[in-house]
Write a structure and sequence with these properties.
Elements lengths: L2 H5 L5 E7 L4 E7 L1 H11 L3 H21 L5 E6 L6 E6 L4 E6 L15 E8 L5 E8 L7 H13 L4 E10 L2 E12 L5 H13 L3 H6 L5 H8 L5 E8 L1 E2 L5 H8 L4 H7 L6 E4 L6 E4 L1 H10 L1
Parallel strand pairs: 5-11
Antiparallel strand pairs: 1-2, 1-10, 2-9, 3-4, 3-6, 4-5, 6-7, 8-9, 12-13
Helix pairs in contact: 2-3, 3-4, 9-10
């Protein structure tokens, strides 16, 4: 049986847990099908597909850590400034994304420094919390995982260890997932020393995913081995787009009246494609007329 078939037996989900002594909070996620759907919708390939998958997983982990009931977006801009990748994580467990270049382009995300990661999360009052960090794809700097740790430390003032990974065989997603281990203020020296050594010796996430049987529960058990902990929450994850004809019409309704009249001049249906999922919408002239009547 192939690795892909084995991995597919596990449903995508994310789990939050905290040690009973209040020293650590851990979030683990399996995101294989979610990442697979996002990559397929954007026809991403090669290095770009891998980075895209990592960002999709990273955005949902940050949402679980900082805003479980709100939306989080991550935007990765290449060092050359010619391309970008977007991950969009929603509180209902749905995730989607955008790739600003397709195919095997995006060489500036294959190695070196200079890329930028911008994380944005919605606050309860509707405003946005934003943070920007540099991303280095040199091996010792950790790529997107390292950038997410830098974001958490500098923008959220939380010390953490983060790992995200997407395994590809050719253009196929074999497995994807990630975890966060947060250091909480109540930690004492003993547990801190134990966790520090454990994380230094912990297997690479890629290797764990490659085995094909990794689950979020098993990952938490390994990370917190010997430490009593309590599960706080468990949520399903999936790829899905929030587009709809109503949302398209609502966007068109914000156009100036003169622009809508221009769209009606040839009296033909207006074809609009969602950038996230590539679904096509045909807006009829009668629907555009209704927008004019309502304005």
């Amino acid at each position: 049986m192939s690795e892909r078939n084995v991995t597919n037996k596990q449903a995508d989900k994310v789990i939050r847990a905290m040690t009973n002594d209040g020293a650590f909070r851990v979030i683990t996620a399996l995101t294989t099908e979610t990442v697979r759907g996002a990559i397929a919708s954007q026809n991403a390939k090669g290095t770009v597909a891998g980075r895209f998958g990592e960002l999709v997983t990273g955005a949902l982990l940050i949402r679980e850590a900082m805003s479980p009931n709100l939306r989080v977006q991550g935007i990765l801009k290449g060092a050359s400034g010619k391309g970008s990748i977007v991950a969009d994580a929603h509180p209902d467990g749905t995730n989607r994304g955008l790739v600003g270049f397709s195919g095997t382009t995006g060489e500036d995300m294959a190695g070196g420094k200079g890329a930028l990661l911008k994380m944005m999360r919605t606050l309860p009052n509707g405003s946005l919390h934003q943070g920007i960090v540099e991303v280095s794809f040199e091996a010792q700097d950790g790529g997107i995982s390292g950038a997410l740790m830098s974001y958490m430390q500098h923008s959220e003032q939380i010390v953490s260890t983060i790992a995200v990974a997407t395994l590809l065989e050719g253009d196929e997603v074999v497995a994807a997932g990630g975890y966060i281990v947060e250091l909480l203020p109540e930690v004492e020296r003993g547990p801190l020393m134990i966790m520090t050594q454990r994380l230094e010796d912990f297997p690479k996430l890629d290797d764990l995913l490659r085995k094909g049987d990794l689950t979020p529960n098993a990952l938490i058990e390994d990370l917190l081995y010997g430490m009593p902990y309590t599960l706080l929450a468990e949520s399903d994850l999936r790829y899905a787009c929030h587009c709809s004809e109503l949302r398209v019409l609502s966007s068109l309704a914000t156009l100036p009246r003169s622009d809508i009249e221009d769209l009606l001049r040839d009296n033909k249906p207006l074809e609009i494609t969602c950038d996230y999922c590539r679904k096509e919408y045909g807006i009829q002239p009668s629907q555009l007329q209704a927008l004019l009547m309502a304005s």
